[in-house]
Design brief:
The complex is a heterotrimer of chains A (287), B (281) and C (370).
Chain A (H helix, E strand, L loop, with lengths): L7 H22 L10 H8 L1 H33 L5 H9 L6 H11 L6 H6 L20 H29 L3 H9 L4 H12 L1 H16 L3 H6 L6 H9 L5 H35 L5
Chain B lengths: L5 H32 L3 H4 L16 H8 L1 H34 L5 H13 L2 H14 L6 H25 L3 H10 L3 H12 L1 H17 L2 H7 L8 H11 L3 H21 L1 H13 L1
Helix pairs in contact in B: 1-13, 4-7, 4-10, 5-7, 6-11, 7-10, 7-11, 8-9, 10-13, 12-13
Chain C lengths: L3 E10 L2 E11 L4 E5 L6 H9 L6 E6 L2 E2 L10 E4 L11 H11 L4 H14 L15 H13 L5 E5 L7 H18 L2 E6 L2 H7 L2 E6 L2 E6 L1 H6 L4 H6 L6 E10 L2 E6 L3 E3 L5 H5 L4 E6 L4 E3 L9 E12 L5 E6 L5 E6 L11 E6 L4 E4 L12
Parallel strand pairs in C: 3-8, 3-9, 6-7, 7-8
Antiparallel strand pairs in C: 1-2, 1-4, 4-5, 9-10, 11-12, 11-14, 12-13, 14-20, 15-19, 16-17, 16-19, 17-18
Helix pairs in contact in C: 2-4
Classes of the chains: A mainly alpha (287), B mainly alpha (281), C alpha+beta (370).
Chain lengths: 287, 281, 370
């Protein structure tokens, strides 16, 4: 026991802030000015239409964005895994987005998706010979909820794809090559090997990606903050309530709801993937 | 003579096209960022004509403008001071902790690991509210210290994982050998263990530096409340809201990205294993 | 007929050739072992037959059909891997039926296949277990069952017994022989273990550094090694090996070595008359006998050795002795008490057991043109 003293400073540090966050978050959420305890912040939030907007927006963001990150990461990982040449080089290029701060990518998209004569508008209007004409007039990318959130998600998925890819790639690399060979000698073509052997075996890695990415999606802040200022997600709503609104109590309520939803999602994913995994093992002749 | 397998050829074609599409999707935005950063005004404001793919007049004026600006240097200095202090504090806390986690089993180890994962997965946008409120009450907001403490909290779980993994690779024999020779524990730790895991510790330090350098949420909540201190991310955000010419925004973005890109390529190997082991554990 | 024919097969990795123009003809229903030390190219050859490795040049025919350019999944082969390569996420039954389901075989046909293969390999009661829940021997049998249900023309086995312990391995060898007799498939077995190969195979292809050294029945390999490599690789412990010169003694063919003058087979006479050349003489320890009161034929040569070390691995003792000239001689004796370290004794060898090889290319001189 006496040997573990070097751990103590880190343990105290983490425990202090974790307790602070948990206690203060709960306390703040039931404080309104000098009133304590009170459900006023909660009531205010439940009456706030912006909150429901943000909740639905974030839910859509999670439901679409999480699988999208998984698919993008899986696709990239499979390309690297099955590479005919330059495996290391391709992997290094695919990791590049990870090397850019989220804020920089958000700023870049802010520039490219300018509502008046931005690069994206010019491109889609067919002003360059290498790209077909898709739209006739400038599109106000930030003036439309669907477009603004889509561009935010595009940036988020682009920037975080490498993390998903690396996790799945490590799963792929841990598959014994002889398993693939065995499937070949048993008559399995590329598709059968992919769906019956490779994907079931990287399933744990895919679960990890889903868990990590769903957390990221719930708490997403920087992309919608820069690119979808008028269409809040829960993350941006927290910032708005705390800063602009000077309503730390209401911000804390939303923050707590966000934590709750995140935990709920994690439990849901663990439950669902667990079921799929059992199904995979048991699916047999009778299926 | 070789034999041509049609399926193989088709697969190669599909694969190559997919790789090319992905590469274009990754490289094109980065190219555009760099292009905007070296664009002259006529390339940015074309008055309805197509924005050129290559600047009409490539120029480093935007960078020169930034480099002559006192405020810009002050901001860079702030970011650097905060990042370096965060590295120092994080290393001080994480290296001994990683060693203990790698070497000993103790009753509360599970509890500590769960705490680590909880802190790591806790949404930063949720934890920032109580932490910012706390620092306001302590009269610490708008200070270097508040941001350093917050960034350390963000980096700590991950870096402890990295340090633990590194120490697990050092055979216990080496330590025991040193003890038999008569070295005391502090000597063993500083003269034998730390040098052996140095590359991983450097990787952890770089990770911490970058996390702090890029961080926006905590910096925004702790510093943007009327104080004097500004970091590079806050500076970029402030410029965004002023809607200056796009080439200036791009130039600031490049300045913000350069250290990240350099470091990421130096430590890619460690980052990869770190990301993965951190994720799996 | 599912004869397997390899014609002038070549393979290299980069600039490093691993198989040099190899020819092999395996008859339908035959049990053939590819035998050689690690790195001899035997596994590469097997993987090329399976279609898992590209053939650089040459021809591969199975059952009269060319296999070049066909991917593994389209070849009429089944394979058992050294690690068994059972799919960890599928139970035993699903592992076995995997290939059948790929072929979209009808459900009742799949069931009848299972009803045939599960008793054949004694896997009753394990159908719903996962690979990690069964023993090594059971895994090996599942891997075999998985290959057999596909009814391949050729069954390829890559050291399938090397992960089993000694006792289990003997059982598995008997099992494999029984299954071969029952299903009558052509089996190509890869091994580095000569005892395994000698026990099970009808013919053995001895490979060394990507060359085929000899392709023959086990006893022929033992009695008439075509090369010095085969002579030394087949049989244990390693054969006695000396430098010698061909000549005649009293008009009879002999070889002169440091051990003494050794009478050799009359068939070597033709070689003696050609220019005397330096050759390599190999004699198995099993072929050297202690001289007691046997009646010796004129083909026997006798020499005296001084025992310096006696090893007793089992029912026989291996004696390591030295001749007057200091050459080591290894041989077996029946009873330990007939030999005493330091007490010289006479041993003899019969001419047909003296194998002679060209010193330059290692080939048996009897196989060479005069």
């Amino acid at each position: 026991m006496s040997d573990i003293w070097p751990l103590i400073p880190a343990a105290i540090y983490l425990l202090f802030f974790f307790m602070l966050v948990m206690i203060a978050l709960v306390t703040l959420s039931v404080t309104e000015g000098d009133l304590f305890p009170t459900f006023e912040p909660l009531q205010a939030i439940l009456k706030n239409t912006e909150f429901y907007d943000a909740l639905i927006n974030t839910l859509i963001f999670v439901i679409i964005g999480t699988p999208l990150e998984l698919i993008a990461g899986l696709f990239a990982a499979l390309l690297v895994y099955n590479s005919f040449w330059g495996k290391t080089f391709i992997r290094s290029v695919f990791v590049i987005p990870f090397a850019f701060p989220g804020l920089v990518i958000a700023t870049l998209l802010f520039i490219l998706f300018d509502s008046q004569g931005g690069f994206a508008n010019h491109l889609l209007q067919g002003q360059y010979s290498f790209f077909p004409k898709v739209i006739d007039h400038d599109v106000a990318w930030r003036g439309n909820k669907f477009l603004a959130l889509s561009v935010s998600m595009l940036g988020k998925v682009w920037r975080d794809m490498p993390i998903s890819m690396l996790i799945i790639l490590s799963g792929l690399n841990s598959i014994e090559p002889e398993l693939i060979d065995a499937a070949k000698t048993m008559g399995a073509g590329f598709r059968a090997r992919l769906t019956k052997i490779i994907l079931p075996l990287v399933f744990p890695a895919m679960t990890t990606v889903l868990l990590l990415r769903s957390v990221e999606m719930w708490k997403e802040f920087i992309f919608p903050y820069i690119l979808a200022g008028n269409y809040p997600l829960l993350g941006t709503l927290i910032e708005k309530l705390y800063g602009f609104g000077s309503e730390p109590g209401e911000a804390a309520v939303v923050a707590l709801i966000l934590v709750g939803l995140t935990v709920l999602t994690l439990i849901l994913i663990v439950e669902i993937t667990g079921r799929i995994k059992r199904e995979l093992v048991n699916s047999g002749v009778n299926s | 003579m070789g034999y041509i397998d049609k399926g193989e050829v088709a697969k190669k074609i599909v694969w190559t096209s997919c790789v090319i599409v992905m590469m274009v999707g990754i490289i094109a935005p980065i190219y555009l960022l760099l292009k905007y950063a070296i664009s002259d005004p006529s390339t940015v404001n074309t008055g309805g004509r197509p924005i050129p793919i290559w600047p009409n007049r490539p120029t480093f004026d935007m960078f020169l403008y930034l480099f002559k600006d006192r405020e810009f240097w002050a901001v860079v200095a702030n970011s650097a001071i905060i990042a370096v202090s965060t590295v120092a504090l994080t290393s001080f806390l994480s290296v001994p902790a990683g060693y203990v986690l790698a070497r000993y089993n103790f009753p509360l180890k599970r509890f500590f690991l769960i705490l680590l994962i909880s802190v790591r997965l806790f949404p930063d946008i949720s934890s920032v509210i109580p932490i910012a409120t706390f620092f306001v009450r302590m009269n610490l907001h708008s200070s270097y210290l508040s941001v350093v403490l917050a960034h350390t909290l963000l980096a700590l779980p991950y870096v402890i994982f990295m340090a633990t993994t590194a120490f697990e690779f050092v055979p216990k024999d080496i330590e025991e050998q040193a003890r038999v020779i008569g070295a005391n524990r502090v000597t063993i730790f500083t003269k034998i263990l730390v040098p052996m895991v140095f590359p991983s510790l450097v990787a952890g330090a770089i990770y911490t530096f970058l996390l702090s350098w890029d961080e926006f949420i905590f910096a925004h909540f702790l510093l943007d409340t009327g104080g004097q201190i500004q970091t590079l991310t806050l500076y970029l955000n402030k410029n965004l809201s002023f809607s200056p010419p796009q080439n200036i925004l791009a130039a600031i973005s490049v300045c913000l990205s350069v250290p990240v890109m350099i470091f990421t390529f130096i430590v890619q190997r460690y980052m990869v294993s770190g990301v993965v082991s951190g994720a799996v554990k | 007929m599912a004869d397997l024919v390899l014609k002038n097969i070549q393979k290299s990795y980069g600039n490093h050739p691993v198989i040099h123009g190899l020819d092999l003809h395996i008859k339908s229903g035959e049990f053939v072992t590819l035998l050689g030390p690690s790195g001899c190219g035997k596994t590469t050859l097997l993987r090329m037959i399976a279609g898992l490795e590209k053939i650089d040049s040459g021809e591969l025919w199975i059952g009269g059909k060319p296999m070049q350019g066909l991917p593994a999944q389209k070849r009429p082969i089944g394979m058992v891997f050294q690690s068994y390569a059972l799919f960890p996420h599928m139970n035993v039954k699903n592992n076995i039926t995997f290939g059948l389901k790929i072929q979209k075989m009808e459900e009742h046909a799949i069931f009848s296949k299972l009803d045939w293969v599960i008793p054949l390999l004694g896997l009753e009661g394990l159908e719903n277990r996962l690979p990690k829940e069964i023993s090594g021997g059971q895994r090996q049998r599942v891997a075999l069952a998985r290959a057999l249900v596909l009814d391949p023309e050729v069954l390829l086995l890559d050291e399938p017994l090397s992960n089993l312990d000694a006792a289990l391995r003997e059982l598995a060898m008997d099992e494999l022989k029984r299954i071969h007799q029952e299903v009558g498939k052509t089996i190509i077995y890869v091994s580095h273990n000569q005892a395994e190969a000698m026990t099970m195979s009808q013919r053995i292809a001895v490979l060394n550094k990507g060359h085929l050294e000899q392709y023959a029945e086990p006893m022929r390999l033992y009695d008439e090694p075509a090369s010095r490599f085969t002579a030394e690789f087949i049989g244990s412990p390693i054969a006695n090996s000396y430098v010698g010169k061909l000549g005649t003694h009293d008009g009879l063919p002999v070889v002169q070595t440091a051990v003494g003058i050794i009478r050799i087979s009359d068939r070597c006479m033709g070689h003696v008359s050609s220019a005397p050349k330096e050759i390599r003489v190999c004699i198995r320890p099993q072929d050297i006998h202690q001289l007691k009161n046997q009646v010796l034929t004129p083909y026997c040569s006798v020499f005296r050795v001084l025992p310096s070390l006696i090893e007793t691995p089992g029912d026989r003792c291996l004696v390591i002795g030295k001749t007057n000239s200091g050459e080591a001689v290894r041989f077996f004796v029946d009873r330990v008490h007939t030999v005493v370290v330091g007490e010289p004794l006479d041993v003899f060898v019969s001419a047909e057991h003296v194998h002679l090889f060209n010193s330059e290319n290692g080939k048996n001189i009897l196989g060479e043109q005069i």
